[in-house]
UniProtKB/TrEMBL annotation:
Residues 1-113 form the Response regulatory domain. One of its GO terms (biological process) is phosphorelay signal transduction system. InterPro entries: CheY-like_superfamily, NreC/VraR/RcsB-like_REC, Sig_transdc_resp-reg_C-effctor, Sig_transdc_resp-reg_receiver, Tscrpt_reg_LuxR_C, WalR-like. Keywords: DNA-binding, Phosphoprotein, Transcription, Transcription regulation. Signal peptide: none annotated. GO terms for molecular function: DNA binding. This is Response regulator transcription factor. The modification 4-aspartylphosphate is found at D51. CDD domains: LuxR_C_like (cd06170), REC_NarL-like (cd17535). Residues 140-205 form the HTH luxR-type domain. It comes from Kribbella sandramycini.
Length: 211
């Protein structure tokens, strides 16, 4: 489902995605409330491409209400949308810049549909650096006791926006081993994906902006 209050943007995105052999656009919505109504009637909805700023109901509230349902990919201009972090906390699986290329858009939908989180490291670092300092909640740190020392190291590097390959290089591990550590870390903490891991790490004060 493509959700955007601008007809040309919404139609253009839908046309690009519908032209792919493995992607089907099953619905378009003009705002968050419209998206919620339509999503309730679509049994196999996998991904919602969600704009942030819309009338009636914005993308953040719509994402919160869709929690536990289809995975949400946030569409953002980034520099203007200061509520993207809130959208990620509400359950979004990632974000995509509106100035992204056609190929980046298609890849983003495939990544999210495949169950992964979309965290472009450079953009993630900018986003977290901008908003994280005001979100710290040290009481969350107690929940990290279930992690091994290595899993905690991996969590820190994930929170800094590093890819599995970068983490493997930093810790002198194979990329397969890193994937295993990430999977176990997410499972132990009851997290769905890397986005939630980033948020938890900053909430816990395990890492802070710029460190």
């Amino acid at each position: 489902m493509v959700v955007d209050d601008q007809d040309l943007v919404r139609d253009g995105i839908a046309m690009i995605l519908d032209g792919q052999p493995d992607i089907e656009v099953v619905a378009q919505a003009v705002d968050g409330a419209d998206a919620i109504r339509q999503a309730a009637a679509i049994l196999d909805l996998a991904v919602v491409l969600m704009d942030v700023r819309m009338p009636v109901m914005d993308g953040i509230e719509a994402t919160r209400q869709l929690a536990g349902g289809p995975r949400v990919l946030i569409l953002t201009t980034f520099d203007l949308d200061e509520y993207v972090y809130d959208a990620l906390r509400a359950g979004a699986s990632g974000f995509l810049l509106k100035r992204s290329s056609r190929d980046e858009l298609i890849n983003a939908v495939r990544v999210i549909a495949g169950g992964d989180a979309l965290l472009a490291p450079p953009v993630t670092r900018r986003l977290i650096d901008r908003f994280a300092d005001t979100r710290l909640d040290p009481t969350v740190a107690a929940g990290l006791d279930v992690l091994t020392a290595r899993e905690r190291e991996v969590l820190v590097l994930v929170a800094k926006g590093n890819s599995n390959a970068e983490i493997a290089d930093e810790l002198h591990l194979t990329e397969h081993t890193v994937k295993t550590h990430v999977s176990r870390m997410l499972s132990k903490l009851g997290l769905r994906d890397r986005v939630q891991a980033v948020i938890l790490a900053y909430d816990a004060g395990l890492v802070t902006a710029g460190r």
